[in-house]
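User: Structure please.
Assistant: Input sequence and predicted structure:
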Amino acid sequence: MSAPESRFQSDTVISAWKYICQLRVQLQKNKASLVLGAGISWDLKLPLWGSLIDRIKAAMQPNAAEAILVSDAPGKAALVLFEIFCSYKKSEIESGGLYADSNLVERKILSDWRELIHEALYSDTKDGDRRETINGHPYFGEMIAFIKQSELTVNYNFDDYIEFGLSCADLNPTSNERPYQTIWSHHAQFTKDKCVIYHPNGFLPFDKKKFQSENLIFSDGAFADQLLDGIGGGLSTLLHVLTKKTSILLGHSLTDSTLLHLLRKAATISPGNYNYFIRYTRDDEILDNQSKAAIFEANFNNYNLITLFFNNSEIKEFLHAITLPQDEFLLESDVLGLPTKYCYYMVGSIGIGKSTVLSQFGNLITLDEWFDERPTEMANAPDHLSTHKTMTIDSWTNQQFGKKKQLLSYQRSRYIYY
């Protein structure tokens, strides 16, 4: 009889099994999140930043021929194009005579600007094709499986494909309730304990009649304002995700200055809490081990990021392993011959700071030195204790070691990570 074959075939994913175990525990504790970037949009027929700018320039050209000449980097180009748009749109609105108040004129300009971005964003999207589009995405279903078990998902993209996926009954069965909550302000209160989707850069749903954010973070100026706003607490939700949860950065290139600032700050605030960065690798891309090691060390030392080098199929396997039902995961681990519990021991002399260091590892399950309150007499020198007290303390200490051993050898199905 041949040995059973695992559904996980990628050596890269199998080598990350320890990280998968830790993420599974965090997800069960509602302390794992996805932080999604523009890279996931490529297979959703949505334009990346440069292509979006080109579409906006083409749409503006009939009213402002100079728009096509804008050749700056996308962030600067968006800033210049907005100024050009404001110039001709303001003249157009004022000549129409419908808006006398300057505040109304400004709001109308912003509304028309969002409309222009909406048209450019969804120009290749048809309502009837959206389900087919997500079915063709290499790992969309696995993302939804993760998101519906997570309290908060951060989506830096404007689009509502994640919300659309959560609304599909077969991907996310729900009964008589909205399957998600969308927010774009750090002031918003969560009304759900799962499937809260936070769009820090703004939100433009495919259906124009749905609620959308008034402001979009789309230019260098807006990114700078967002960074400055963080000083006053405007980035508190993002900072909470990076310091109090275990996050997977997916679809990012780590070029966003605001995100890098947050990662650096999070590493300073919570040095024992680390997150994961999936560095996308094309099928035809070859990175030698030395380059991978250099990237890994740079991201870990500066941003507390564990870098995983995955292509599309490996991202799919990785997310699937995290959300796999417990019995199936244990079976797969047996087939692969991999442990599901990893124990690490911290040792050191008295007073060196073991407990202080241990308290920083909030994303791991940790065992303190003692399970119960330590007897006060243990602070005294042994030669100052009576024989009875010494025997009592020795017995108590043995009980503590017994409790710790019992927990460490507790049911394997718990796959505790230390």
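The longest helix spans residues 74-96.
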